[in-house]
Specification:
The complex is a heterodimer of chains A (about 425) and B (about 350). Chain A is mainly alpha-helical and about 425 residues long. In chain A, about 65% of the residues lie in helices and about 0% in strands. Chain A contains 16 helices and two strands. Chain A has a two-stranded parallel ribbon with strand order 1-2. Chain B is mostly helical and about 350 residues long. In chain B, about 70% of the residues lie in helices and about 5% in strands. Chain B is globular and about 60 Å long. Classes of the chains: A mainly alpha (about 425), B mainly alpha (about 350). At the A-B interface, helix 7, helix 13 and helix 15 of A face helix 2, helix 5, helix 10 and helix 12 of B.
């Protein structure tokens, strides 16, 4: 039904050259030494604040501050915020870098969480297998592998799931791909809900979920070797929340580092080329399927690690956690921050994650005390409408600032200059 | 899912799958023909409701190539408003007289269609219209956002509880042959759906508006040059789709008697699957797809031999969606789309 026309962009050579020159200039400008050093200062400050945040003295001081004190999350909530931010940065690889809309990212979260459930709990009581199970009684039935190893295995398993989902579907384009991923995102939770008796074999324990899941730890050997610096087992320490927070922060930094390096790698440039113009990218010799599948696998990898870590943190994997809205929640983080922009997604992830866990309730209370109750004589349950609020954010961002809060340079150029994109609603995207 | 041209592996798999499906249906039919036909009638009724919703997706996709995610939520909101009108304005109860019930249903039908179509037009006007020149995914993402907004409007108005109405159309039997029975409520849904479908097909085929719609969907620029008001035509399409969603909302409510703010999400996805199965953009395809999905769902939940059961309905429906999109994106009746490679 769509008419293939010549690109609406004017193709006069002079203009093209000037655009290219501008682009090179901006790229070069971004790489000046001084800029890099100056831009590092806020990062270092943010990192230091991030690291000392859960310390008892710092945290209580912040939370006891008048007025703004209640806007600081507890270390426990902060862990959840970090985990979801990590997933959003993983989703950013698929949506932001490669430009593939994934509406079923929750499937990878679920795969990671259940991997932790299978490999570090008493789910499979018929087998007893221990491997470096830190602080767990060796007699305990079930498979118990150290969580740090499980995280890697979960990442790899989830990447495999991503490849399996990706291979048949990634040749579809745009909105059809989005729908297929949505379909997988709906099937996976139903599968784990129903797979409690596959020919009598209890794979997922149905709607009860798998619980408890082992906490992370380093075992006796490493703990004694470092003089107690590395804990035997997180849940046996008094400051479990802080330990969970720091290791989550470590994982987040690892994710950010990988995604940041990936963006400028050969693979990352191939993703961006595909995002901008699939046909041209193929003509330049980029293997489309392989490159897209890699983006899926890598995006899934981080989702799996985050899912497994979260399952270990809350000591359970329940099918009711994996619903469609989570995918949209993560997508909202990516859109708000700016598709393709790591720093944008990081900040949007922290903001939205905080709103989700504590923020909406806090803001809602203030709103009710100050305005709604005196005027309407009733209270508004703000957290109930969280997804309506995310819907409003998504629509407003798309209408008025589609590049996000902190736009990625390249993406901004694409939006400003128009790219050889899929036609929007049956028409070629023309230069605005 | 039959093979096109040379038999490919995919084609052979498709045929094998169809053969298995036929064997499964055949075994169930010969095991208990009367049960089979009863289940078939239930599935047909369900399919009729799906078809009405699927038509809304297909109309909008045909003209804008946009999956209007919010459609299912418009359907749910219309149904909930219909329940409010029936209960609070007409004050109907289970034993109201037939006259009052018919008048109430007729007025509510009109109101639900009007509200849903103005809501749909508003969504297009505020959201999608500004994004016609944006990248395609921007419009799709906006549609998802709109879906959540409409769903939360329903949540704010009707809260999380299920809204129930008394059974207004009785489920007493119209006729019975052996164990096969057709109930009034099923007949009512079918009787209301068929004229709506005929009117819609007449409208698209024979009126000036319908002609403008078809022209706009083929080539928007050329239709604008021919003097068609493209914006108005698109608004009209959204109004039509919304009216169908409103009608479907009331029918769903009358047949199932209960719904909730998030009923539209799952129903919307199922109906979208139906539209894709039939070939998105194709009106007859949407109806065929709706009926097929309704039948598949009821066969899965109602038959007794080798049946996965209701726990797996969602997986089966989405499995079909994925299989169709991967192996035959043009659907059963649709034309070849660019998505097919």
């Amino acid at each position: 039904m769509t008419e293939q026309q010549t690109p609406g962009k004017t193709s006069e050579e002079s203009q093209l050259t000037s655009v290219l020159a501008q682009r090179t200039e901006r790229m070069a400008g971004r790489r000046k030494r001084g800029d890099v050093a100056r831009s590092l200062i806020p990062l270092v400050v943010a990192l230091v604040i991030g690291i000392i945040y859960p310390l008892e003295s710092v945290n209580t001081t912040l939370r006891d501050l008048p007025v703004i004190g209640e806007f600081f999350p507890t270390p426990g909530s902060a862990v959840i915020i970090i985990v979801f931010t990590m997933m959003a940065i993983g989703l950013n690889v698929v949506v932001g870098y490669a430009g593939l809309l994934d509406l079923g990212y929750v499937a990878f979260y679920a795969a990671g969480a259940y991997m932790a459930g299978w490999l570090a709990s008493q789910q499979f009581e018929q087998w007893t297998f221990h491997f470096w199970s830190a602080g767990i009684n060796e007699e305990l039935p079930g498979i118990h592998i150290n969580i740090w190893l499980v995280l890697i295995l979960a990442g790899l398993f989830t990447a495999l799931v991503g490849i399996v989902i990706g291979l048949p579907t990634l040749r579809l384009r745009g909105d059809y791909l989005a729908i297929v991923t949505l379909g997988f995102g709906e099937i996976v939770p139903q599968f784990v809900r129903n797979a409690d008796s596959i020919r009598g074999f209890d794979l997922t324990h149905g709607s009860f979920g798998i619980t408890p899941i082992d906490p992370p730890g380093f075992g006796d050997g490493l703990s004694e070797g470092t003089g107690g610096l590395l804990p035997v087992n997180f849940s046996q320490s008094f400051d479990a929340e802080q330990l969970f927070y720091w290791s989550a922060l470590g994982l987040l930094l690892f994710t950010i580092f990988c995604c940041w390096r990936l963006r400028d790698s050969r693979l990352g440039r191939a993703w961006i080329a595909i995002r901008e113009d699939e046909t041209a990218a193929a003509a330049m010799g980029i293997p489309l399927m392989r490159t897209k599948t890699w983006s899926y696998a890598i995006g899934a990898f981080f989702g799996g690690i985050a899912g497994a870590y979260y399952a270990s943190f809350k000591s359970g994997a329940f099918p009711s956690d994996f619903y469609f809205n989570i995918s949209i929640f993560l997508l909202c983080m990516v859109i708000l921050g700016g598709m393709g922009s790591i720093w944008g997604v990081l900040i949007a992830g922290i903001i939205l994650g905080w709103l989700n866990i504590e923020g909406l309730a806090v803001i809602g209370n203030h709103l009710n005390d100050g305005f709604v109750e005196p005027v309407f004589d009733s209270r508004l349950e703000v957290p109930k409408y969280q997804f309506g609020i995310y819907g409003v954010i998504i629509v407003l961002m798309m209408l008025f600032r589609p590049t996000g809060l902190i736009p990625e340079q390249r993406r901004k150029l694409e939006m400003e200059e128009g790219v050889h994109d899929e036609p929007a609603m049956g028409e070629r995207a023309v230069n605005k | 899912m039959t093979s096109r041209g040379r038999p490919s592996i995919v084609g052979i798999l498709g045929v094998a799958f169809l053969v298995l499906l036929v064997v499964w249906l055949g075994v169930n039919f010969f095991d208990d023909p009367q049960e089979f036909i009863n289940v078939f009638l239930v599935g047909l009724t369900r399919g009729a409701v799906y078809a009405l919703i699927a038509l809304g997706y297909t109309l909008v996709y045909g003209i804008l190539q946009l999956i209007n995610f919010a459609h299912g939520d418009v359907f749910a909101l219309a149904g909930l408003i219909a329940s409010w009108i029936l209960l609070n304005i007409f004050d109907v109860t289970g034993d109201s007289g037939a006259g009052l019930v018919l008048v109430a249903i007729a007025v509510t039908l009109f109101a639900a269609m009007a509200i849903a179509s103005s809501l749909n037009v508003t969504i297009e006007f505020l959201g999608y219209r500004r994004l016609r020149h944006a990248p395609r995914l921007a419009a799709l993402i906006t549609a998802i956002g709109m879906s959540f907004i409409v769903q939360n409007i329903a949540l704010a108005l009707f809260d999380v509880q299920y809204q129930s109405i008394p059974r207004l159309v009785p489920n007493s039997e119209v006729f019975r042959i052996g164990d096969i029975a057709l109930q009034w409520n099923k007949l009512f849904v079918l009787l209301l759906t068929i004229p709506v479908l005929l009117a819609l097909s007449w409208m698209v085929r024979s009126t000036r508006h319908g002609k403008a719609m078809r022209a706009t969907s083929q080539d928007r620029d050329a239709s604008a040059m021919m003097g068609i008001n493209v914006n108005r035509t698109i608004s009209f399409t959204f109004a039509l789709a919304g009216a169908l969603a409103g009608a479907a909302g009331l029918l769903f409510l009358l047949y199932f008697t209960t719904m909730r703010y998030d009923t539209g999400f799952e129903l919307g996805l199922i109906a979208f699957t139906a539209a894709v199965l039939g070939g998105i953009g194709n009106l007859t395809g949407a109806v065929l797809g709706g009926v097929l999905i309704g039948l598949i769902q009821e066969f899965n939940e109602g038959l007794s031999i080798w049946t996965p059961g209701g726990d797996w309905t969602r997986s089966i429906v989405f499995g079909i969606l994925i299989a169709i999109l991967v192996f035959r994106p043009s659907g059963l009746l649709g034309e070849q789309t660019p998505e097919g490679e």
